[in-house]
Structure formats: C-alpha cells, structure tokens
Amino acid sequence: MMGAWFLGTSYSEILAAELSKLSAIETDAGKVTDIASALVTYDNLFIFSAKIGFATAFFFLIISPLLKKLMHGVK
Predict the structure, then answer these.
(1) Is the distance from CB of 42 to CB of 22 less than 8 angstroms?
(2) I need a labelling partner for 51 at 20 to 30 A (CA). Which of 22, 37, 41, 42 fits?
(3) Sign of the C-alpha dihedral, residues 57, 62, 65, 70?
(4) 14: containing domain
(5) How far, in Å, CA of 47 to CA of 29, rounded?
(6) Residue 23 near residue 45, CB atoms below 8 Å
(7) Is there a domain that residue 40 lies in?
(8) Number of domains the chain is built from
(9) Cβ distance 36 to 13 under 8 Å?
(10) Is 73 helix (H, G, I), strand (E, B) or coil?
(11) Which residues, 6+ apart, have CB-to-CB distance to 49 below 8 Å?
(12) Percent of the chain beyond pLDDT 90?
C-alpha cells in the first residue's frame, strides 16, 4: 500500500509539473510584461482543466450502469 501511495504522489507531481508548463508566462524582474497574453494563457489552462473534469464526469456517468451490474445487488 505504501508503494501505491508513493506512486500516486509521483503521478500527481508529474501532473502538476505539466500544468505549470502550460501556465508559464514571461516576466521581467518579476513583473508580467504582456498582461493580455498572460490572461489568454490562464484562460486556456482553466478551459483545459474544465474539459478534463467534464470528460471524467461524463466517463463515470457512462460506466455507472456497468458498475451497478457488476456489483450484483450490493448496496
């Protein structure tokens, strides 16, 4: 179980690194140089995250009858 715990943690950190790459913006001495570009970048990241959430919800909605069937009446 500890191995599964650490594997889950490593996958979440890989996902966080990929999302941080998507949200990277250019700065000059810590200040955003192009605010419009930053807004578009963050908007795209938000839309991407929402699409992943809706796709996951839709997937589980579709497979829920199959899961109920496989439970053989367990409540």
Answers:
(1) no
(2) 37
(3) negative
(4) 2-70
(5) 28
(6) yes
(7) yes
(8) 1
(9) no
(10) coil
(11) 19
(12) 49
Helix axes 35-70, 2-22, angle to 10 degrees: 150
Which residue type occupies 17? A
Characterise 40 by phi-psi region: left (phi > 0), alpha (psi -120 to 50), beta (else).
Answer: alpha
Q: Which residue has the tokens 């998507």?
A: 22
Is the whole model's pTM more than 0.70, yes or no?
no
| Residue 75 belongs to some domain of the structure | no
- Take residue 51 and report the two structure tokens written for it: 């699409």
Residue 38 has what pLDDT? 86
Q: Is residue 14 part of a domain?
A: yes
Strand partners, 28: 31
Of how many residues is the chain composed?
Answer: 75
- Signed CA dihedral, 21, 26, 30, 36: sign only: negative
